[in-house]
Amino acid sequence: MKTLISAKEVSFSYPNGVTSLIDVTLDLYPGESVAIMGENGAGKTTLVKHFVGLLRPVKGTIEIEDVNARSMTVAEIARKVGYVFQNPLYQLFSETVEKEVSLGLTYLNLPKDELEKRVSSILRDLDLERYRERHPLMLSEGERKRVALASVLVIEPKVLILDEPTLGQDAVEKRKLAELLARLHREGHTVVLVTHDVEFAFEVCDRILVMSKGRIIADGPKREIVTLREVFEAASLTQPQIPRLAALLGRVEFPMETIDIDEAERMLTSMIAEATRR
Question: Beta-carbon neighbour count of residue 171 at 10 Å?
Answer without folding.
Answer: 8
